[in-house]
Amino acid sequence: MTSTPEIHRGLAGVYADTTEVSTVIQETNSLTYRGYAVQDLAAHHSFEAVSYLLWHGELPDEKQLAAFEAAERALRPLNRTESELLARLPETCHPMDVLRTAVSLFGAEDPREDDNGEEANLAKSLSLFAKLPTVVAAHQRRRRGLDPIAPDPRLGYAENFFHMCFGEVPDEEVVRCFEISLTLYAEHSFNASTFTARVITSTLSDLYSAVTGAIGALKGPLHGGANEAVMDMLDEVRDPADAARWLDQALAEKRKIMGFGHRVYKNGDSRVPIMQGALDRLVAQSDNPEAPRLDKLHAALREAMFERKQIHPNLDYPAGLAYHLMGFDTPVFTPIFVMSRVTGWTAHIIEQLSHNSLIRPLASYDGVAQREVPKG
Ligand code: SDX
Fold first, then answer.
1. Could you report the predicted ipTM of this complex, rounded to two decimals?
2. Whole-angstrom distance, CA of residue 68 vs CA of residue 55
3. Domain containing 238: what range?
């Protein structure tokens, strides 16, 4: 008789490989990208510089950053085929479906699709980084019956995204808050979507296929879809005075409370204090009449959840409300996460290829024992 193997359902606690891209340091509850604390990166560097760091391993000097920004700005526009094909998707489809389709289309168009050399993959990564905001913004506008706005090469990454969505760039504080969220969302080791990208890459498939699969993984509400689900929850509860009662009922029904809990952090997500600080500043200067009520409700649910379950919020909890107050439609929140995480995914794809081994675990069979096929 063979012994029963130890099962790690959900691969919880399993180290599947090594990585040089980022790590969560449990002792200090901190997250580093290429060795730098993420809060220091968010405070002192642009999202473009952080993206460069994730791909190249070092922060850019002034000249490198200028060249990187110029290359990114030149790659933003969609060609006519891309615009027309994406505009044929149903207006009602989820923007994550639009993004998944867009990445698949970019792959089909790219003659370098199957070139898995580092140089080609860095070029494809930069192209995705530049074009995905154009896709997201066009769909945000289409949902509101508006024509797309072309990217403006005079604007930085974050400013340009607001310009393409709303035709204007908001106050500096709002842009800062958005940039901080992008830096915090950019990378998080072997999370589900990154691991998906690495599994696809490990078969020696192409970068576009890996990113398409990663988008599918991120869409789910247990992963990136949670930032949208947080806003749906705030819309459902509405009144801060109802927060505790609503939570008691939801927990009694064994519902998962969106934006709370984490597979790796058990004493709080290290990114939350930074994002919560940015959200507080956003609320303080918001002219949205709903901001004070939403802020109170947000705090009331967080406190009630901690009192009852001692479970902390994750990054999606403050980010979801921040994106709402910036004016984005709820279904666009997870696509914004994609715009950022595409940097981490592609850094991992390149790393996977640098020491590739096919990812193919085992399963312990517990189905029926071998039996005779009925004859005739
Ligand atoms: C992201 O991996 C990453 O790095 C992901 C991410 C990234 O940057 O890539 O950080 C982004 O995906 C954040 C997570 C977003 N998801 C949610 O907010 C959805 C709600 N949260 C969960 O369902 C849950 O906390 C997970 C999925 C995030 C983590 O799940 P685990 O590690 O599998 O833990 P679990 O579901 O087994 O929970 C352990 C216990 C259970 O209670 P008991 O059965 O032991 O009594 O904690 C409870 C759970 O019921 N619990 C919750 C809860 N989270 C944990 N109960 C209610 N609501 C919750 N949110």
1. 0.98
2. 12
3. 226-325
